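hiii so um. not sure if this is the right channel but i have a protein structure encoded as C-alpha cells and i wanna go backwards to a sequence. like what aa goes where. can anyone help
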C-alpha cells in the first residue's frame, strides 16, 4: 500500500474519541501499517472498535470485523487471567511453592520456587535443555516430564529472565494439577473465560476456524523501521546461538511451530505463551472485565488487588537477562514502568512480539487492545500502538480535567 494512500477504516468511535480514529488511520499513511484492529472498552462499554487494511498481503483480502490474528506474547496476558481465576477460586496461591501442587517439579533445585516467582519470570527456567516440537507439545504428560527435570539457569529468585516460551508450558501443567477437571490452559481459558464472555480468542486454534478469518503475518526485512538501540541489542542477541534470548526462543520450540503452510496457523496444539489467536475486541473485552472488577467471572477482590499491586523484583532487580531491558513482570503480566509506560500504576497487560499490545487499567476501568499482521522489530513501544495509547491518554486526561473543574 502506498504510504500516501488513505485506507478505508471500518467500525465506530463514540463521540469524543474521534482523535483515536485519526491516529489509527495515520498508521497507514505514516507508519506502514498493513492490516490491524483496535478496540477500547471504557466503563464496561466499547467506545472504540476499528479495523482496516488487508488481512493477507499475498491475496489483498481485506481485514474484516471478525478477522483474528496471532498475537504472540500478548497471549501471556490471557494466560495470566486464567491463572488469576484459579487464584480467585482458591485453587492456587501466589505465595505457595509450585511443588506443593506439582511434586515432581521439585527436582533439580526447584523445590522452593513459588508460584509468584514462576509467573514473574524469576525461576531461571527461561529455556529447556530438551528441544520441544509439535509431537511433545501435543503430549502433556511427556512435556511435563521435561519441564520437571529442567535445572534452573541460576538460583531461583536471583534474576528476572523473560520465559518467552516456557512460561506457558509451566502454567498449563500447573493448571492441570490444580484444576478439578485437569484441563489444559487453553481448554480452561476457552470454557471459563472465552465462552462466558462470548469472545473470539483461542490458545490452541481449533480446526473449525476457516482460513478466511485469519490474518496472515507478514515479516519482511524491507518492512522493518529503523531500529532503535534497544531493538538492535535484541536483534544481535537473537542472532547469537548462545545468548539467553536465542535460547529462550529456539531452544524450546521453533517459531515455525506456530505456522502452517496450508492453514496459516498451526491447529490443535497449545503454546500458551505465544500462539494465542483472536480479535482485538476479544482481548479488550477480557481485560475490561477484570478492569471492572471481574464480577462476571467471579474474580475476588484480593486477586484483583494482587494484579494491580507493584511488581516484586528479583534479588538483582528488574533488569531482564533475556530481553536486555528493565521492565517489571508480575504474576503473568507486564506492569507499567519508564521503559514501557501504559495506563495508571495499577494497570497490567502484555505486549506481543511484532507490535500487538493489550492491557487492563482498573483505575480507569479501561480495557485496551491493538492487533496487527505486519511485524515490527522488538516487543513493546511499537510506534503504531503507542500513538494510539497516547491519543487515548490525552482524551482521558482532558475528560478528567473537565470533570474536576
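sure thing!! here u go:
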Amino acid at each position: 500500500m502506498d504510504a500516501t494512500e488513505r485506507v478505508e477504516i471500518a467500525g465506530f468511535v463514540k463521540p469524543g474519541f474521534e482523535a483515536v480514529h485519526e491516529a489509527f488511520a495515520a498508521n497507514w499513511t505514516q507508519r506502514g501499517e498493513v492490516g490491524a484492529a483496535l478496540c477500547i472498552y471504557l466503563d464496561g462499554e466499547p467506545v472504540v472498535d476499528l479495523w482496516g487494511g488487508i488481512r493477507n498481503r499475498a491475496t489483498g483480502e481485506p481485514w474484516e470485523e471478525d478477522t483474528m490474528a496471532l498475537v504472540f506474547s500478548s497471549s501471556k496476558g490471557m494466560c495470566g487471567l486464567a491463572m488469576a481465576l484459579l487464584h480467585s477460586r482458591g485453587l492456587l496461591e501466589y505465595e505457595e511453592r509450585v511443588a506443593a501442587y506439582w511434586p515432581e517439579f521439585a527436582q533439580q533445585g526447584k523445590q522452593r520456587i513459588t508460584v509468584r516467582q514462576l509467573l514473574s519470570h524469576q525461576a531461571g527456567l527461561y529455556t529447556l535443555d530438551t528441544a520441544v516440537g509439535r509431537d511433545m507439545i501435543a503430549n502433556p504428560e511427556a512435556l511435563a516430564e521435561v519441564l520437571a527435570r529442567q535445572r534452573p539457569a541460576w538460583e531461583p529468585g536471583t534474576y528476572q529472565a523473560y520465559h518467552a516460551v516456557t512460561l506457558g508450558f509451566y502454567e498449563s501443567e500447573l493448571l492441570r494439577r490444580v484444576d478439578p477437571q485437569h484441563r489444559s490452559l487453553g481448554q480452561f481459558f476457552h470454557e471459563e473465560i472465552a465462552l462466558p464472555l462470548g469472545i473470539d480468542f483461542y490458545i490452541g486454534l481449533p480446526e473449525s476456524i476457516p482460513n478466511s478469518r485469519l490474518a496472515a503475518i507478514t515479516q519482511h526485512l524491507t518492512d522493518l523501521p529503523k531500529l532503535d538501540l534497544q531493538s538492535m541489542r535484541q536483534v544481535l542477541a537473537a542472532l547469537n546461538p548462545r545468548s539467553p534470548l536465542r535460547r529462550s526462543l529456539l531452544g524450546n520450540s521453533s517459531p515455525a511451530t506456530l505456522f502452517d503452510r496450508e492453514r496459516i496457523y498451526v491447529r490443535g496444539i497449545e503454546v500458551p505463551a505465544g500462539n494465542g489467536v483472536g480479535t482485538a475486541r476479544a482481548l479488550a473485552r477480557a481485560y475490561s472485565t477484570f478492569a471492572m472488577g471481574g464480577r462476571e467471572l467471579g474474580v475476588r477482590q484480593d486477586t484483583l488487588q494482587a494484579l494491580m499491586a507493584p511488581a516484586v523484583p528479583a534479588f538483582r532487580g528488574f533488569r531482564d537477562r533475556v530481553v536486555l531491558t528493565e521492565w517489571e513482570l508480575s504474576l503473568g503480566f507486564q506492569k507499567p514502568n519508564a521503559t514501557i509506560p501504559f495506563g495508571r500504576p495499577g494497570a497490567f497487560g502484555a505486549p506481543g512480539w511484532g507490535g500487538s499490545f493489550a492491557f487492563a487499567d482498573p483505575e480507569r476501568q479501561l480495557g485496551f487492545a491493538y492487533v496487527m499482521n505486519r511485524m515490527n522489530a522488538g516487543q513493546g513501544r511499537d510506534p503504531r500502538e503507542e500513538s494510539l495509547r497516547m491519543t487515548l491518554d490525552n482524551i482521558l486526561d482532558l475528560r478528567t480535567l473537565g470533570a474536576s473543574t
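oh and The CA atoms of residues 56 and 216 lie 5 Å apart.
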